[in-house]
Amino acid sequence: xxxxxxxxxxxxxxxxxxxxxxxxxxxxxxxxxxxxxxxxxxxxxxxxxxxxxxxxxxxxxxxxxxxxxxxxxxxxxxxxxxxxxxxxxxxxxxxxxxxxxxxxxxxxxxxxxxxxxxxxxxxxxxxxxxxxxxxxxxxxxxxxxxxxxxxxxxxxxxxxxxxxxxxxxxxxxxxxxxxxxxxxxxxxxxxxxxxxxxxxxxxxxxxxxxxxxxxxxxxxxxxxxxxxxxxxxxxxxxxxxxxxxxxxxxxxxxxxxxxxxxxxxxxxxxxxxxxxxxxxxxxxxxxxxxxxxxxxxxxxxxxxxxxxxxxxxxxxxxxxxxxxxxxxxxxxxxxxxxxxxxxxxxxxxxxxxxxxxxxxxxxxxxxxxxxxxxxxxxxxxxxxxxxxxxxxxxxxxxxxxxxxxxxxxxxxxxxxxxxxxxxxxxxxxxxxxxxxxxxxxxxxxxxxxxxxxxxxxxxxxxxxxxxxxxxxxxxxxxxxxxxxxxxxxxxxxxxxxxxxxxxxxxxxxxxxxxxxxxxxxxxxxxxxxxxxxxxxxxxxxxxxxxxxxxxxxxxxxxxxxxxxxxxxxxxxxxxxxxxxxxxxxxxxxxxxxxxxxxxxxxxxxxxxxxxxxxxxxxxxxxxxxxxxxxxxxxxxxxxxxxxxxxxxxxxxxxxxxxxxxxxxxxxxxxxxxxxxxxxxxxxxxxxxxxxxxxxxx
Length: 697
What we know:
Blueprint: H1 2-11, H2 13-31, E1 46-52, H3 58-73, E2 79-87, E3 90-97, H4 103-117, E4 129-130, E5 139-147, H5 152-168, E6 173-179, E7 184-190, H6 192-198, H7 202-212, E8 216-223, E9 226-232, H8 239-243, E10 246-250, E11 253-256, H9 257-260, E12 261-267, E13 272-276, E14 279-280, E15 282-288, H10 294-311, E16 316-324, H11 325-355, H12 358-365, H13 367-382, H14 388-401, H15 403-421, H16 430-440, H17 442-456, H18 464-489, H19 491-499, H20 504-508, H21 513-531, H22 533-550, E17 566-572, H23 579-594, E18 599-607, E19 620-627, H24 634-645, E20 652-656, H25 658-668, H26 683-696
Antiparallel strand pairs: 1-3, 1-4, 2-3, 5-15, 5-16, 6-15, 7-12, 8-9, 10-11, 13-14, 13-18, 17-19, 17-20, 18-19
């Protein structure tokens, strides 16, 4: 069959070359259009449930809300793990399904289970909502809205009603969260003395405000050929209208809201604060939808943010130099692209040097772009992205994808030279020589390619996160490798038949002198090695044992450490600390960080933003620190950061990086490299055991 493929290619040169050109053009066009990401999507199909419960205590929230939801979901089809976090007035439940489960079917399953428990939840708890579909790498951008001339109330209102709504309208954005400032709220500050004097209860006042805060439709009336819509306007539009709301009547006199207290605009109850570079700010987090191209989406967002900046009130500014996943992706892809380029250049130099013929080397090097672009097309057809793993697979394959072509070209080159050295009457036709020369080595290149491919086959049997991470690398490598085999059996013989017969090296009938010199040196070394075979085998065995022994002393990690250019610093103080005190401690941490020359910007989120999937108490703060390295190494900068932050009393500091933190959270449910989980029904005992573990650690 392989011989027939080679014969068909040599008799249909135009078709083969046309297909090769089409592959180059189509593959190049798709290569610039494929989505680009830092890593393959490592997130299992996960549905996130958010429940807001006002000020309910965590113990009550867990027993009345979290536990019933978990119990209902544990038996759902396809569910492999249910995790939850409960805090004051909030609960988040993550429902993880089996790999390969359709996410929309999973969301439908969760909705059905939630409907069974919705009626048993307390009245003070808002109905559970599903967070938008996202991934562990979904947070692509953090912004800060600041102003020196506007109040935090105005900033938060602008962030919620202008910036958030506009950004949510950008295709590819799944969620936008805001933290910091104060949510504008119309408040009635009730006087207990007035309530007592007018003999009005607080419940009557609440019911009156609730009834008055709505409009009522009463149908329509037709008169004189016209239709009139009847609408009862009841919703107040000003503080004065709220104050004029009738609560009840006493002795024929209406009792108004303003008679019972003061009506004012004030901040709602806050469970989070934000700051940028040590100054109060609204921190805005943007998450992308799965499958969205991070680089293209960030570019669109930059355009939208430019428009928003021009339309904002004078004095308000949008700061973007906090965290941009696109910057890390561009740096990582650029580094891998340079490695791919440098490896290709080295291969090209070696091929030109040792084949010592421009035509022969050019034929060999054609296999490189054809094989790599075939891998790109395969990724397009399977829905994969260009990321560190797929580019790494192609970079590893660079040296291997020219091997088959080199073997074929060298053998055909030699056979053509031998044919030219014969008398003209004994010479075979060019096609016959090329065909015979290609068939002679077909078994060698096929077996060699299969053996190399078998090395990567186990990657496709990995499950879970490991499989999701490493399979794209193996896929890109194997597609490029087997594409190079197909090129060596089709395109390479055709180009040999077209270019090599007219080569001066073929017509001269001899090879360059320095190549013959190298062969003589190698022959002497080979003969010596064969005479001392036992010695060399013993040396190889010693090296093998040394390599196996060193395996047990090598460090282990799921992923190598990234150089993301941004730090994520967690600052947690004692539980029970108020938001105000925690905010002061977070501000002190920021001031210490900004004194370090390499720190160019900081953004802090203390507590939790509404609708945020990351639940942390008001005693915890998370800082994103943007770094610009100068003369000092990163290790020295990190040591200075740790030394400075150790000066803040009563705060536990953890330093990591944004993407690494999120991967740790996905693997263990916590943003830490090592997590110890203790299970049991007695909360007090669990706390005692946790304290004991902490003392040991």
